[in-house]
UniProtKB/TrEMBL annotation:
<dbReference type="InterPro" id="IPR029033">
    <property type="entry name" value="His_PPase_superfam"/>
</dbReference>
<dbReference type="InterPro" id="IPR013078">
    <property type="entry name" value="His_Pase_superF_clade-1"/>
</dbReference>
<protein>
    <submittedName>
        <fullName>Phosphoglycerate mutase</fullName>
    </submittedName>
</protein>
<dbReference type="Pfam" id="PF00300">
    <property type="entry name" value="His_Phos_1"/>
</dbReference>
Length: 179
């Protein structure tokens, strides 16, 4: 099995209007949400082998908080310039290049890219993927390359956000009982 954990960056600050979008930092609620979501991912034993972030300050900060909680080496986190306003093909390129020894890959990025990615990987429509939300998708494959053509669809095993229910994010989605 291979797993992709898709996470939207935590809440960013709008206190610095002079900053470009890519440079906005997390606000205090974002820092708290990144920590609580990271702790939940740890509790569920879903810690990724590799974390790939958009280059935006808020995604890198979200990743840094989580990686620190999980005691992962900094070599396990990387920045992919293509994931700021990334397209599906950019994510698939990262998936294909993932070390075959890694079984759990995490992306930290932005909307609406992440909702589109989840939908493409699972055929489940996400109506709203709020800040600090995460979605784990399970794939019945042994190699990341098996996912390269987008034909194999995964199953969402977890979908959680700090202030939204699963029903609000994906109406009608039934999650497996996997805790």
């Amino acid at each position: 099995m291979k797993y992709i954990l898709i996470t939207r960056h935590a809440k960013s600050s709008w206190d610095f209007p002079e900053l470009d979008d890519i440079d906005r930092p997390l606000n205090s609620r974002g820092e708290k949400n990144a920590m609580s979501q990271g702790l939940e991912i740890k509790r569920l034993k879903m810690i990724p082998d590799k974390v790939i972030c958009s280059p935006a300050t808020r995604t890198v900060a979200t990743g840094a908080i989580m990686v620190d909680l999980w005691h992962l080496s900094q070599k396990n986190i990387s920045v992919d310039e293509h994931l700021f306003h990334g397209r599906i093909k950019d994510y698939f390129k990262s998936i294909e290049q993932t070390d075959p020894q890694h079984n759990r890959l995490m992306f930290i990025g932005h909307e609406p890219d992440l909702s589109a990615l989840i939908s493409h990987l699972t055929d489940v429509d996400i109506e709203h993927f709020p800040t600090a939300a995460y979605c784990q998708i399970e794939f019945p494959v042994n190699s990341w390359k098996e996912l390269s053509d987008g034909q194999i669809k995964g199953r969402i095993t977890h979908l959680k956000a700090p202030r939204k229910s699963t029903e609000e994010m994906a109406p009608g989605l039934e999650l497996p009982d996997v805790e």
